Amino acid sequence: MKKRWFAVVCIALLLFCITGCDQLTEAKNKAEDLYASKVELIGDNSAVSHLIEKIGLGNITNYTIELKTEKEPYGLIINVKEMDGSFAENDFSATAVELLGLIKNLDYVEITNGQDSYKLTEAEASAMINENVKTLGESQEKLKTVIDQLTNK
Fold this sequence. Notes:
Number of helices: 5
Mean pLDDT: 87
Structural class: alpha+beta
Number of domains: 1
Shape: globular
């Protein structure tokens, strides 16, 4: 009986390790991919679009973007055209934090469907992760840590 119990515990630990390792590898790969796609200036439309595609927008299936670059504060507005589920059911905070951290001169992100809106500033994002959000673009390891923090909250 003890041998069976030991075998069951070993198998359970092995499965736990495999799934945990997959999640760690996934987070590491995402951090590498996003870090390689970071953007220097919000005015670089194609780079910003590419970064948004890499980050992903969850349940948003169709959108356009507006870049507010004429004067500070510089902003990114994501205009939602279609999405699965309701706007209120979605948590856009992780996406906004990643965008603010990876676009060097971005001051705020706003996601709107015309009726409802979610806005996050650089200061609010920094408070959310307890450090300057702009440091995410300086270190791939720091980016991975924050991605882990945001996805496991």
